[in-house]
Amino acid sequence: MSNPNKEVISVLNDLIETSKDGQKGFQTCAEDIKNAELKALFVKHAQECGEAAAELQREVRALGGDPEDSTSVAGDLHRRWVDVKSLFTGKDEEAVLNEAERGEDHAIKAYKEALAKPLPANIYAIVERQFHGVQRNHDQVKALRNIARAS
């Protein structure tokens, strides 16, 4: 018997991967940066991404699906590329913030795509709320990157 919620579960599992990518990406940024305030900010954003993934996993279970529990291959490849790149460029604040912003650009795109799909109202509300959090993280990281660039 097939699950009538298959499409919604697929959309949510894609967002779970995106959130897990964000969690791992912000953890990596926190490890790579010396500035204590930025480190604390990245740890906070990693925690928020983890909470978003957990919320979406609960929804997938409620819909009768198996929630994703890993990061995406693309996210893993991006982090490895960042690690290799940082060997050559160093891990200065601007470089770390650039990569954090690039990750949030991907998350914004994924959430916008999800919001364009037909989702039940309760799921749409969760995805929309999380999208605003992603947008807020992106804008904050971008502003900090612009400050670092001007320094």
Automatic annotation (TrEMBL):
Parts forming coiled coils: none
Residues in DUF2383 domain copies: 7-117
UniProt-listed InterPro entries: CHP02284, DUF2383, Ferritin-like, Ferritin-like_SF, UCP029477
A Pfam family the protein falls into: DUF2383
Gene3D superfamilies for this protein: 1.20.1260.10
Name by which UniProt lists this protein: PA2169 family four-helix-bundle protein
Source species: Pseudomonas eucalypticola
